[in-house]
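Researcher: I'm preparing a figure for a lab meeting and need a structural model of a single chain. I don't have an experimental structure, so a prediction will have to do for now. The sequence is pasted below. Please return the structure as tokens so I can convert it later.
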Amino acid sequence: MTKDYFQDITPPDENMNERPEPPAPVPSDDPSEEGNQIPIRVAASEPRGIRSITSSRSPRSRMGGDMRPDTPPTFPSLSGVPRVRRARSRWWMWGAAGLALIVVIALVLFAFRPTTVTVTPRSHTIVLTNATSFTAYPAASAASGTLAYTVQTADIEDSAVVPVSGTTTTAAAKASGSITVYNNYSASSVKLVKTTRFATPDGLIFRAPADVVIPGKSSSGPGSVQITVIADQTGSQYNIGPVAKFTVPGLQSNAPMYAGVYAKSSAPMTGGSSGVSGPGVDPAAE
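Model: Understood. Here is the structure written out token by token.
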């Protein structure tokens, strides 16, 4: 049974100069409470009251001899900063790390966001007058920043039904083409007169429309000149291809000259046709 040690405490009396000794503690019948009894002493020179009660046991004996001082000591950290300030600095460090993480995430989202590129062509207004002059160059060789052009060709065909008006006769035409005449006969020039005949191996005759002067041969080869000849007769049979050798029938009396003066063609003869008649068409309707 725990004894009530405060039942005999009385408030201080101002007229009392002497204070009686506190009663001795009453022993308890319970042997388990004998070690837990705390003797209380009241100082004789101080007024009675709760605050004047002191224990005869030391703080160490109250807690079994292993009690530490009532005021907990503060231990400095290794850096000399109290633990409270160090804990506060850790909170700032975690806050700064979180802010840096948010900034990094924002930069990543900004870098991978969809981007729209708008291209505005550069233009310049030019007022053209009669005094304005420009020089254009072919696109294949034009320099950068200059005016370039390209040539485009388009063939357009159309047809329509027109009424027949009488008959139309197509005039006959002679074929013509270019040949090269050679002089491998002499070092001096050879002159052929107008209408000189040039014969193909098949016997078709073409004539020179004017006099021809062929330069003489040299050490580098025979002399040559290029002329245009016209078929001797009309008709499409004169539209022949290139001929390897034309002979000059008028030189047959001089065998060396006949063999040394000849001609070649590298392009076909064209334009030969025969006169034909057919349904006519009014020129206005055509």
